[in-house]
Amino acid sequence: MPLLEVKELSVTFTQYDRGLRRKKATAIQDLSLSVERGEIVAVVGASGSGKSLLAHAILGILPRNASVGGQMAFDGQPLTASRIRQLRGKRIAFVPQSVQSLDPLMRVGRQVRQAVRAGDPAEEQRMAFARYGLAPLTERRYPFQLSGGMARRVLVSIATVSGAELIVADEPTPGMDPAVVQETLRAFKTFAENGTAIVFITHDLEAALAIADKVAVFHAGTSLEVARAADFEGAGDRLRHPYSRALWRALPQNGFAVPDLGANEPLSRSAVGCSHARGCALATIECAKTAPKPRELRDGMVRCYHAT
Amino acid sequence: MNLRTRTLIYAAVALVLLLLPAALSPMLGGDRLATHLAERNEPPSWTHPFGTDWLGRDMFARSMKGLALSLGVGLTAALASGLIAGALGLMAAALGKAADRFITWLIDLFLSVPHLVLLLLIAFVTGGGAKGVIIAVGLTHWPSLARLIRAELLQLKSSEFVLVSRHMGRSNWWIATRHLLPHLWPQFIVGTLLLFPHAILHEGAITFLGMGLSPHQPAIGIILSESMRYLSTGMWWLAFFPGLCLVVLVRSFDVLAGGVHALVDPSRSQE
Amino acid sequence: MRLEARNVSKRYAREAWLFRQASAAFRTGDTVGLLGPSGCGKSTFCRLLAGYDACDEGEVLLDGATLPTSGYRPVQLIFQHPERAVNPRWKAGAIISEGWRPDEALLDSLEIRREWLKRWPSELSGGELQRLCIARALAPQTRFFIADEMTTMLDAITQARIWRTVLDLAQSRGMGMLVVSHDRHLIDRICTRVIDFRELAYGRHAVEE
């Protein structure tokens, strides 16, 4: 049984259009994802594709004008709003994207120690700081005295000292040195080996592939493909979806290729049909008419009529 | 009903409550304020909803007159304070380090002196009366708003989009009118609106203490201080209704300012 | 043209130097990569080169003269976070034409859709906003284009697409490019010369100490 299971999740925002009129905008739709214990699932996609909202939906911290559909389950039990509140910070930990999530008025060492639930808080905090390359003196600092990369490492420390069974990390690496990124990724890997499930949200495909078991490729509010990390190799021929292949081939080390595709388009303007149809080399009339349903393919998932 | 509509309705009700005394007071002139010794010390009734005082004057008429007067004094004083705050905040952020240091020092100075003491001193020095109260309240309520405007402006000036604007070849005037003012004016409006309740309460306070408006004007502070002498004889209505009116008035301003704030603050405006 | 940093230094407080005596020269037509660990002062160095900040020592020269302080600046800088570089109360159309009116061809080559121009920044994604910022800084008068982690927050496809357009334009106009990135692969892919900021700034500094 997966530790976290998300089924047909949708997130819709009610926004003010002009004056008092309201409109609805769909940010995530028909999204399914499962994470086993000890597994790292990377969620990769362009900014604005809805990856962060997935994290916020799991943690129950969406803004008040959002409404959520579909089912989520943690450890076999439905993840309701009240259950999320009980689990948050205990069995489910979160590394937020914004470094402004730290309490500006508390020394960062104390913020980390507060998150410890088992063992000696001071000892756990020192070990976490050593693991992520933060000098011992850092614990006496306030958030404003830290660089962006250091603040992110503190956020990672807070999430990992809690001993949570599931860590949801939203873009934990920007602003860090490549060496520290490697160190942080290695630490995630170690946690996974000890049984922690990790959802690793990033726009950095390279970082994702370094540690992930599975990669979910996000585009316009849903996952187009769930592939094994090993499928990303060579010219990307083992990948199932044309978008994943394009993403892989656009990396500077893999050809820097620019596909002739439409950019990430919000769903509200292409309500029917495949979100990727516009400009897709494989697209047919069928793609523009109805969005393909997810289907199993070669030990992975794909949402495309033409994938083989 | 969504939050925006609800906020708008609250704000509209608050506005009506605020304008009520000003609209009513001209209609409640002459006779009701005159002395009617036959109708002394009457508890609230249909003819005198707020009761009458020891001279037979209608307390409803007196309260409305008092509120209208308080509103006028508060309005003038809050506007004066708002203008001072705006001017000093702008000067601190725009005129360089020396001006900034001086104005920051001035703000700290005003904030460090107990508020009521300063109010009384200024009211006393300027000779009391409506003029004294307006000057005293106007001169003492600007520091926190000035500090807010200064901080906001300094932050805006160093924000990346303002720096980029300069690199696009735009002049200081262009930047001030297109980038800075559109960010500042909502802060300024809400800040000034929130000054009203303070100004009105402080007007009431110094009048109550005898340093404000002269006793023959039906100010809320006067009504309350006079009623103190009769409270012990069981004439509760003398203080209760005027006091309640004052609370409603002040609270209305809070609701109005809160509503305006919710509408102009981008982080709350989507709820 | 030649953009030169001559012994420039920057400090936080009185004696807390971020870097000292950094010198480097860039020519139009070149695409130079600048590498270095985060927090080493690369971004500040870029701000000095573009005239966004004043040097505490040394000077920045454009063809031997100090940088102009009025009019559209020939040295333009693109920041890492486009959300901060645009006024949240302006629509995209106003943002993009603050310095000049970008022509249709440029909008097309950056794949800026016309319907974006009617939207507020909060309604656009980071990639879309960054394209607006790039178009804004690519007036014909731009001689040097400094990209400070310009595509770090973007996905690989958007990154490749933006860089191809910008590099084509730089080549056809003979612009000078300075590319700051932590991504060695990206720098190797697009730059003709690579500088390590530590050698540039700390090399001499370390010797002095």
In short:
The complex is a heterotrimer of chains A (308), B (271) and C (209). Chain A is of the alpha/beta class and 308 residues long. Chain A contains nine helices and twelve strands.
Structural class of chain A: alpha/beta
User: What value does the Rg of chain C take, in angstroms?
Assistant: 17 Å
Residue share in β-strands of chain A: 25-35%
Task: Kindly report the CATH topology of chain C.
Answer: Rossmann fold
CATH architecture of chain A: 3-Layer(aba) Sandwich
Q: What is the residue-averaged pLDDT of chain C? A: 88
| Total helical elements of chain A | 9
- How many domains is the backbone of chain A divided into? 1
Helix coverage percent of chain A: 25-40%
Helix content of chain C: 25-40%
**What is the count of DSSP helices of chain C, taking H or I runs of 4+ residues?**
7
CATH evolutionary superfamily of chain C: P-loop containing nucleotide triphosphate hydrolases
Terminal residue distance of chain C: 35 Å
**Biggest beta sheet summary of chain A:** 8 strands, mixed
Largest β sheet strand count, sense and barrel closure of chain C: 5 strands, parallel
Contiguous uncertain segments of 5+ residues of chain A:
262-269
Order of strands in the sheet with most strands of chain C? 6-7-8-3-9
Catalytic activity (chain A): Ni(2+)(out) + ATP + H2O = Ni(2+)(in) + ADP + phosphate + H(+)
Keywords (chain A): ATP-binding, Cell membrane, Ion transport, Membrane, Nickel, Nickel transport, Nucleotide-binding, Translocase, Transport
InterPro entries (chain A): AAA+_ATPase, ABC_Ni/Peptide_Import, ABC_transporter-like_ATP-bd, ABC_transporter-like_CS, P-loop_NTPase
Pfam family, one (chain A): ABC_tran
Sequence-ordered SSE layout with sheet pairings:
The complex is a heterotrimer of chains A (308), B (271) and C (209).
Chain A lengths: L3 E13 L5 E14 L4 E6 L5 H9 L6 E9 L2 E2 L2 H7 L4 E4 L12 H8 L5 H11 L16 H14 L4 E5 L7 H16 L3 E6 L2 H7 L2 E6 L2 E7 L13 H8 L35 H5 L5 E3 L2 E3 L6
Parallel strand pairs in A: 3-8, 3-9, 6-7, 7-8
Antiparallel strand pairs in A: 1-2, 1-4, 4-5, 9-10, 10-12, 11-12
Helix pairs in contact in A: 3-4, 3-5, 4-5
Chain B lengths: L2 H22 L34 H36 L2 H16 L2 H11 L3 H12 L2 H15 L2 H8 L4 H37 L11 H12 L5 H28 L7
Chain C lengths: L1 E10 L5 E11 L3 E5 L6 H9 L6 E6 L2 E2 L8 E4 L13 H5 L7 H6 L16 H11 L7 E5 L7 H18 L2 E5 L3 H7 L2 E4 H12 L1
Parallel strand pairs in C: 3-8, 3-9, 6-7, 7-8
Antiparallel strand pairs in C: 1-2, 1-4, 4-5
